[in-house]
Structure formats: C-alpha cells, structure tokens
Amino acid sequence: MPFLEYFEFHDRTKLVYGPDTIKQAGREAQLLGGAKAVLITDSVIHGLGFPNTIIKSLEEAGIEVVLVRDDVPQDSSVKIITETSAEAKVRGADVCIGIGGGSVLDTMKMVNLLLTEGGDLLNDHQGTYLQERPLKPMIAIPTTAGTGSEVTFAAMVKDHDSSMKLSFVSHFFAPNVSILDPNVTLSMPKQITASTGIDALTHAIESLTSTQATPITDGLSAGAIGAIHEYLPIAVKNGGDVEARGRMLTASCQAGLAIANSFVGIVHGVAHSIGGIAGVPHGLANSLMLPVCMEWNMEYCLDKYAIAAYAMSVAPTGDMRADAIAGIQKVRDLIYSLGLPARLSEVGVTEDQLESIAELTMGDGAVYTNPRPVEDPGEVLELLKKAF
Question: Which residues have CB under 8 Å from 63's CB, separation 6+?
Fold first, then answer.
C-alpha cells in the first residue's frame, strides 16, 4: 500500500494498568474534578460485586455516587441512554464511570453526550464528528478484552425500532481515563473470552489493512495480533491466568487505539448488519466473517497480511502471497481451536436474511476504508453465502 502523505493520530485517554487498579477509580475521578458520579454497568457485573468496589473507592475520595444504572443489555439502546442521562442530569452528575463490556462503555459515552449537551440522541447527535467540544469526564473499566471501547472515539447503539446499529463518532467520545484491571476479567466465560478476543483480533487485522492505516497504527496492530494469537488460547483454557488476561486487555486496548485512528473494514461492516438484523453478538459475527473476508481482500493487501502472518509466528518464505495465505490459515486455526461456531446458520441467521444484511452493509461506514473497494451488495451477499 502507498505511504500516506498526511495523517493524524489522536489519543485522549490516560491508561492505568494492573491487578486491583479498579480501586483507583475514586482517585482518578477526583483528579478529573468530579464531585457527583453516575455509575453504569450491567446485571452480571453488578452481581460480581465490582461496582461496590468502585463505589467505596469513590466515597473514600469524597465523591458522591448519585446514580447507579446496572441493567444495560447486550446491545445498548436509545431508551436506556435517554432515561439514564435525564436522571443523571436531575441529580447533578458531573463524572461518568462505566464498568463492563462494549455495550456498557458505549452507553456511558452516549449518556455523557446527552448529559453534557442535551437534545435527542437520534435527531440531534447521530453522525460522525458532530461533537466538537469536550464532554464531562469519563472513566472506563473494561471487563472484556475485545471491543477497545475504553479508548475509541465511537459508540455503537442499537435502534430497535429500525433493527439497525447506529454509529456515533467524535474524538471527544474517548474516555479521559481507562483502568485496565485484569482481575475484573477473570470470571469471563470461555465463549465470551473467545468471541471478544476474536473481536480484538479483527480490530487489529482490519486496522492494519485499512486504507487509513499509518506507521503508528501498523505498530499497534501488529503487536496486538501477535499477543492475541499467543495469549487468547491460554485465557480461554485457563480463565484464572492473570498474565494471559492482562496481555489480552492490553492487546485489545492497542487494537482499539489502532481502529480509533485508522478505522476498520468489511468484516465490521457485515458484522454490524448481522447484529442489527439477526441479533448475533458482535464478536461472534466478526469471527464468522473474518477468514472469508480476508480471503476476499487478500490480493489488495498482500503485504499487510504477510505482516499479520509474521506476527502470528509464520516463518517468512520469500513468497509474500504464500505467507499471506498462511496467515489467513492461522486465523482459521485459531478460531477453530477456540470452539467458536463455524457457520452463520449455527447462530440463528436464516438464509432469507442474507440479502437484507448485504443491502444494509452497503450503508455502513466501515466498508469505505476496506482495502478492496466494496462496490455492490451482490459481492457482500456472496461472502455471506460462503459463511452461511
């Protein structure tokens, strides 16, 4: 791929890594000037008791927790965001904290958007780079190693009325602080560990091959690919391995920084549509489409796929195409070894949904930075049929 004549790299987030760093939430909120916090999570994380640790830390720092929202669903919804922001505003919240997976962290971002700016989420704020000034302070604590939402500039929200996943993008949506505590990921089930891990791998591979990739994102992407290939199987096999969990958290964060600056490609475009129409979790949709789309893209980014292959310990042969093919096979082998479903038909996608998924994909912003131009929904439909 040709070298870019101009690029920018943005990173707004302070990273705090280490076991039990969740206990630093109060100190970080205090440093950000917070006095009244809204805490956002889901029922599973609430049941594990982590929010109580955060609340204690906040109270010890002199910060009042004015609202706890602990029922965020798998797909963040407009209704929950609107309700939570309205209640947080009434209670005078001035700092937002989210602990959970991508849905929780995206919910936090959009709650903060409405808390700061007001208005209607869909009618006033939907789009790319519409927000042009800072929001109230945010602290993100990811409990999965996959989405990278703790450092990205985007939030995905499902509009259940239209069955679409909507994207909101602004540099000001990146949290001020991200606390990467491997201990909060130890209880993550095997399948979620596997599917979110492949989500992170997809971020790393698609940011590497994006038409907006830069030398900075290339380094982040390649490093993430190597770490995920090595440590994801360990984390799935032994969820209590703190080092593997930590390596996955940092790799996911690296990949998140990469996609925040270089964006993604067709795998994400299709996965968003599969999630919107068929309700398939995002990481799982990515894992089903990644090898198929890599094969389709291959001739347009042989050099980048070779880099990915070398990061996964493929020995260079002097034949870049052969090395790229070996890299794609490494991805297939990894997904297979994790026991993830192999076909769209295995996760509830029906054949009569494929055409709608293909049509919806064409309007997804992710396809515009794919290395191979996506010109026709028929091309996407063929990829879906191969994965079906």
Answer: 26, 29, 30, 34, 35, 36, 37, 95
